[in-house]
Amino acid sequence: MSAPKRINDPEANSLPVEMQELARLVDAISGPEKRALSAAYERVAESILRRRRILNLVQEALSQLRLDVKYLMFDLETTRRERDQLQSQLEENDRGF
Asked: Rounded distance, CA 80 to CA 72, Å?
């Protein structure tokens, strides 16, 4: 695990600054602890990126849902107006006969 590779990786740049600093600290460690810390760091980093992707998907879905609701409200209002116009036309026709 090397810090320059992680820093140059665009996906890793989306990690919080604290995680990038932790990566540099883990890279500076030598000995058997480095392997365990590196593995733990990678799991946490993957989890952060996965959660960020999920959050982005949820935000996109919410935006699409809001747009869909606006269209549905417009359709509903238009349908109600058309219904009211047709009802008034029917009432006028009934009065005329």
From this structure: 12
